[in-house]
Amino acid sequence: MAKITYVEHNGHATTVDVPDGWSLMQAAVTNAIPGIVGECGGSRACATCHCYIDEARLGDLPAPEEGELAMLDMAAAEVRPASRLSCQIKASPALDGLVVHLPETQG
Amino acid sequence: MLHFDPYSPAVDADPFPYYKRLRDEAPCFWSEEAQMWILSRYADIVGAGQDWKTYSSAAGNMMTELPNRAGSTLGTTDPPRHDRLRALVQYAFLKRNLEGLAGPIRDIARGAADELRGETTFDFKDFSAKFTVRVLMAALGLPSGAEAIVDEDTVREKAVLMVQSDPRTRAKGPEHLAAFDWMREYAAKVIAMRRAAPRDDLISNFAMAEIDGDKLDDREVLLTTTTLVMAGVESLGGFMMMFAYNLATFPEAREAVVLNPDLLADAIEESLRFNTSAQRFKRRLMRDVTLHGQTLREGDFVCLAYGSGNRDERQFPDPDRYDVARKPRGHLGFGGGVHACLGTSIARLATKIAFEAFHEVVPRYSRVADQLAWMPSSTFRSPLVLELAVH
């Protein structure tokens, strides 16, 4: 279990308990958090779960694979160094307390 | 005593009362008839879908699997092999790469809808079958027109038979296996044609594809093509039947989307939740798991009852209500996780265009029959015939 805080573009923050192994995208849509769409269902086939990871915690995450980086190119909002697809990030105790910022649009 | 038999015609016709009992009384249930565990609650199904290392697809994903298919298709492999196959196929299915298909799909939809003009009653399958096969031929690059090697109806008929199972033997019957063999031979011919003279279509690209010098082997090309034709024809056609069934059953919903076709997208999402055609898929455990007080053993098969998770009141309030304004986020109509449906974008696009064209010709309709004949399948659910009366 990890407590993850999602901060929408308008500043509204929601913290949810995410079971180990669940992706951050899945937890967001299951908890009806606006700002993450997850159109493809988590198969890395769209970029509508784009998020920005708190930069200080980037090192706690496994690096993105090539397929994730290629798909991030399709993101509707600005892609930054801390951009990730939330469907590719699995919750674990190491991520407890992580803050995830959501972009203005998912397209 | 609780029973759940995914081969029972009663489950084909209406699985939802069974699902509710499973969710409430036995959320992790051993089905003697299916010889597998049934997971029926939303959170458990999502959790399993997120954990492909434990819930493996490599021993097959259809509840009643076709022989020698597991291990060579997207749905029946685990990462990293799955990811390699998916990378080769996925490109053509990305939303932005489908934009060019919207025009041709609209032409196909209008052509199929035009044939309904003047009818007072008709089987919706006549529309959905024509539309689906033609769209798939355009999307995958199956030979059509002067180049066609078989007629459209045969492709559809075989695709539909492949996903069925025999309710008495709880296995694939000879007619289902023959349809699978037919489809494999058909796919082999198409692959040979495209390899001899490649074109800019999915099967040509897929048959010739290479990533870092790594090519798909012949078996992967053949069985993945076979599965794409099956999934494309049967799943899209089956889902359209279910969507038409819902709109014919709930007049307020139909009136709303006819009046404002922009609402079709929301109505499609709600149909994916409410009674999607992909009801149940299968996984195999790679380790022992304890769930709801039960110990599931390594090697056991597990059914992920997506159709039940979609009606779980723990996730979706008032789940048995078809509500086009619901916007059901996180529904399981396309499965989820690494194996989430490859065709999500084309399915949404094609269904929306099809119903826009259909409603231009037939805006007011209702079901003729109260009781329908349902397809015998342990995996998918849709009516075999959907008679509609035009008002």
Summarize the amount of helix of chain B as a percent range. 40-55%
Global geometry of chain A? globular
Structurally, the number of domains of chain A stands at 1
What count of helical segments of chain A does DSSP give? 2
- Briefly note the structural class of the backbone of chain B: alpha+beta
| Topology of chain A as a string of helices (H) and strands (E) | EEHEHEE
Shape of chain B: globular
Could you give a short description of this structure?
The complex is a heterodimer of chains A (107) and B (391). With 107 residues, chain A is an alpha+beta fold. In chain A, 13% of the residues lie in helices and 21% in strands.
Model description:
With 107 residues, chain A is of the alpha+beta class. Chain A has one domain (2-101): Roll (Ubiquitin-like (UB roll)). Helices cover 13% and strands 21% of the residues of chain A. Chain A is built from 2 helices and 5 strands. Chain A has helices spanning 24-30, 66-72, and strands at residues 2-7, 13-18, 50-53, 83-85, 98-101. Chain A has a 5-stranded mixed β-sheet. Chain A is globular, with a radius of gyration of 12 Å. Chain B is of the alpha+beta class and 391 residues long. Chain B has a single domain (9-390), classed as Cytochrome P450 (Cytochrome p450). Chain B contains 14 helices and 12 strands. Chain B has helices spanning 9-13, 16-25, 42-50, 81-90, 102-114, 124-141, 152-162, 174-196, 202-208, 218-249, 251-259, 264-275, 306-309, 344-361; strands at residues 28-31, 36-39, 55-56, 121-123, 210-211, 214-215, 281-285, 289-291, 294-296, 301-304, 365-367, 387-390. Chain B has a 5-stranded mixed β-sheet, with helices on one face. In chain B, strand 8 (289-291) and strand 9 (294-296) form a beta hairpin. Chain B is globular. The mean pLDDT of chain B is 94. Chain A binds chain B through residues 19, 21-23, 26, 29-30, 32, 38-46, 67, 74, 90, and chain B through 42-43, 46-47, 49-51, 83, 86-87, 90, 93-96, 315, 329-330, 334-342, 344-345.
